[in-house]
Design a protein that fits this description.
Blueprint lengths: L29 H15 L7 H19 L2 H10 L11 H23 L4 H18 L3 H9 L3 H13 L1
Length: about 170
């Protein structure tokens, strides 16, 4: 696992690339987790204040599972090989994992508030604005991260295939 000791100060950094990315509590990728929290609320959230906590705990549980999987050697190698800005990525620090959980929780709570005051569409608008803003700022976003993780780079696939043939 990549869970390692990061740094507590400053709490947030503007860099999205190694060596500072994922070493502090918050970085630009924290906004991706805020978007994820909003998406989770849009998928199964409710504006019923008595029942919102079930979806909230499900969202936080799924995010925690992703943090565990996302910091495995397999996923770290996949991220390093598929992402141009992450060649030196070493994984998330404990501080960053906590920040990611807080960001996802904040997104879910924000979605709950939007739904409770009957402006649920603000969640969709915020998702679009943050995704576009992240693409303009760091050429990455939640949608792009999922896409690059799922779709394997052709060049690295050819290299891996030719490497296997030479064994």
């Amino acid at each position: 696992m990549a869970w390692h000791k990061g740094t507590w100060w400053p709490l947030a950094v503007k860099e999205w690339y190694a060596p500072k990315a994922s070493q502090h509590m918050f970085d630009p990728y924290s906004l991706c987790l805020l978007v994820l929290g909003l998406v989770f609320h849009l998928l199964w959230g409710t504006d019923d204040i008595d029942n919102w906590c079930y979806g909230f705990f499900l969202a936080i549980g799924l995010e925690l599972v992703w943090e565990i999987i996302g910091n495995s050697k397999f996923v770290l190698n996949r991220i390093r090989s598929n992402s141009g800005t992450s060649g030196e990525y070493i994984g998330d620090s404990i501080q960053n994992i906590l920040g990611d959980l807080v960001s996802c929780a904040l997104g879910y709570i924000l979605g709950t508030v939007f739904a409770a005051v009957e402006v649920w569409w603000l969640s969709i608008l915020l998702v679009i604005l943050v995704e576009v803003g992240l693409v303009l700022y760091m050429r990455d976003s939640l949608i792009l991260m999922v896409t690059t993780f799922v779709v394997r780079d052709r060049k690295s696939t050819r290299l891996n295939s030719s490497h296997l043939c030479n064994l």
